[in-house]
Write a structure and sequence with these properties.
Layout (H helix, E strand, L loop, with lengths): L7 H28 L2 E9 L3 E12 L2 E11 L2 E10 L2 E11 L8 E10 L2 E9 L8 H24 L7 E2 L1
Parallel strand pairs: 1-8
Antiparallel strand pairs: 1-2, 2-3, 3-4, 4-5, 5-6, 6-7
């Protein structure tokens, strides 16, 4: 005869473990990015043909992207997006809008941090002013990640061909 026991403490432990796992993977990715990071720039046009230059950084572990960051300026604002991945799936994302130029202390106007498990948003944190996109955080975060990850996937072969280093992509 086989029996199964349900232990309430086990369910609580598992619910906390998802965040510990993500925090550990984020720490590893951050550590790797401090030692080895690839950089490139994408020149784009946004509304009314306004040019922006995005700076991209990404880090690989065993041939897979573990973290990538997109950074750009628009007028007096600095925008940062950071995506952490595990086996090509998003596990954490950060987005910040910062007043530029920065003085002695950064002035974050708005920011969001999301934690994901199995492509589902588990926790979403906002700071500063709330934007319209914050009303549907899971949809916006996953959609934005997919667009950005596709851009990175399309650009990487150009960068990594023959290990020629960083290039500028129009």
């Amino acid at each position: 005869m086989t029996g199964f026991f349900f232990l309430p403490g086990k369910a609580v432990t598992q619910s906390i473990d998802w965040r510990s796992r993500i925090d550990n993977l984020v720490q590893i990715a951050d550590s790797l990015s401090m030692r080895s990071q690839n950089t490139f720039h994408l020149n784009k046009f946004i509304d009314n043909d306004r040019p922006i230059r995005e700076t991209w950084h990404y880090t690989l572990s065993k041939g897979k992207v573990v973290i990538f960051e997109v950074h750009y300026f628009l007028d007096s604002l600095e925008f940062q997006e950071v995506y952490y991945l595990d086996r090509d799936q998003i596990i954490c994302m950060e987005r910040y809008e910062i007043l530029y130029p920065a003085h002695a202390d950064d002035r974050i106007l708005s920011g969001t941090v999301g934690f994901f498990e199995n492509q589902s948003l588990r926790q979403y944190i906002t700071m500063g002013k709330v934007e319209d996109y914050d009303l549907l955080p899971e949809y916006d975060a996953i959609a934005r990640f997919r667009v950005r990850y596709r851009e990175l996937a399309e650009t990487r072969p150009l960068l990594e061909k023959d290990n020629k280093g960083s290039i500028f992509v129009p």
